[in-house]
Amino acid sequence: MSRINTNVSSLTAQRVLGQNNQSLGTSLERLSTGLRISRGKDDPAGLIASENLRSEKAAIGAAISNSQRADQVVNIAEGGLQEISSLLTELQGLLTTSANGAGLAESEKEANQLQIDSILQTIDRVAGATSFQGTKLLNGNFDYQVNAVNAGVTDIEVRGAKFNGATQVVDTIVTASAQKAGYYLSIGTSGGIDLSESGNQFTFEISGSLGNRELQFDSGATVINMAAAINAVSDVTGVEAVASGTGIMLSSAEFGSNEFVGIKIIDDASIMTVQTGAAIVDMTADDFDTPDASSTTDFDADAASNGLRDVGQDIAGTINGLLATGRGKTLSVNSDFLDVKFSTTDTAAQTLGAIGGTAGAFTITGGGADFQLAADVNIAGKVSIGIGDISSRKLGNSTLGFLDDLASGKAFNVVDGENIDTAQDIVSAAIDKVSSTRGRLGAFQKNVVGATIRSLGVALENTTAAESVIRDTDFAAETASLTRSQILVQASTNILSIANSQPQQVLALLG
User: Fold this and answer.
1) Where along the chain do its domains lie?
2) Which of 24, 256, 271, 312 has its CB 3.0 to 4.6 Å from that of 181, i.e. a possible disulfide?
3) How far apart are CA 499 and CA 14, in angstroms?
4) Are the C-beta atoms of 271 and 221 separated by less than 8 Å?
């Protein structure tokens, strides 16, 4: 080189040195911050991906916190329900004690009634006091509100509902009617039976879901007498009787496949030789109140002596397009978007078609406890659960009565000594409701909240790992890069020094 105004070698060395210094600075920044991406220019696409992942991490973390909060809310509700359950168990024992009328003085009955009143008041107090951050949990505050209830629907229990609009219509179509079990016991006469030729007693056994009894009838017994005798033991058989024409309509006390009516002729007393038309008549398949004259069994037939048995039928239908579960006259459905259970009247349970027509069975207008258990805020990520009113005026059902009917001065108080059996049935229904609520909340905690927390924890872990791969510094690789940059900076500096001194060689030409 013989030119000194422009030192190209020096310029090249300066450029390379600047690049090496920049690379060294980048390595130092990454190692000191622990981040591979600190600004957009470090990796534009990587920055966008990592920011999205950071947003997802925040949402998942909030969802985990929401799930833990939901678990705490249910824990508090469970504590109140557990105490109420204990009180109901004690109440059941008091009723059994009070039913021992001959063994109790009037003062003891009054003392038991005082205890019952105290238990009812405590149940109401616990239901009203159980709260989370001031929000009552067991007083119906988280129950669903319904209106436009069709007359054919009773005892509605909305256990969960998610919908986008202001209301949700519950459309119900009955596809199979509920039926009682039954037979028509034809005697052939509405007057007194005539067994004079045999001198024996007409004897048969009636059985039902509660038990069985054997009954005997002499000459002169009318269908009214026989029906009365059957009804006298219906509490222990579960079978009811109504005198109708020349015979007796036998039917189970309740609807459904768990109910049955059995009849077994022990001794027909040759009644058929005297009473024309005496036979056991089946009911029509779609109406337990209508005898089927084409299907009869004579009293002296082997089938009658071996015993006949007819089973009831559960209601069947659909609710909002979902196949419902039928039990007796009760329909229920449980899905992610709708969890309801309700009973139907006798008429509605035996009328095929839509309950309420286009208006639906009833309309849900709001309520319930909503928990956001997913990162994405939408209806799919929301979980709704209803907690009904657990006060004494709501425990029971519309058929039997409610728990507050056991209070002093009400219909089933133990001082009067009447209807204690009904009172015990009411308490049993109350225990069933509290127990089912506890079971439902327990399933919510275990299978929804618990599973969600575990799933979200894994999602948070994986999302964090993905974000770390994109954004965090790989110290092994960056340390190697740092060492390389340090060496190159030192080398570039030395080369720049050499390049700067190189023009001095021109002086040798000047001699």
Assistant:
1) 8-34+473-510, 144-176+315-367, 182-311
2) 312
3) 9
4) no
User: How long, in residues, is the chain?
Assistant: 511
Checking 96-102 for CB contacts under 8 A at 24+ apart, the result is: 96/424, 98/414, 98/417, 98/420, 99/414, 99/420, 99/421, 99/424, 101/417
Tokens representing residue 255 in the block: 């609807």
Q: Give the three-state DSSP class for 472.
A: strand
Radius of gyration of the chain (CA): 41
Distance between CA atoms of residues 412 and 99, nearest Å: 12
Q: Residue 456, SS3?
A: helix
Q: In whole angstroms, how far apart are CA 336 and each of 322, 339, 384, 452, 459?
A: 11, 7, 9, 14, 22
Structure-block tokens of residue 111: 């003392």
Question: 166-192, pLDDT tens digit by residue?
Answer: 899 999 999 999 999 999 999 887 777
Q: What does the angle CA 333 – CA 334 – CA 336 come to, to the nearest 5 degrees?
A: 135
Confidence category of residue 412, pLDDT binned at 50, 70, 90:
confident
Residue 4: both structure tokens together? 């000194």
Alpha carbon distances (Å) from 233 to 179, 201, 210, 417, 470:
22, 19, 10, 20, 79
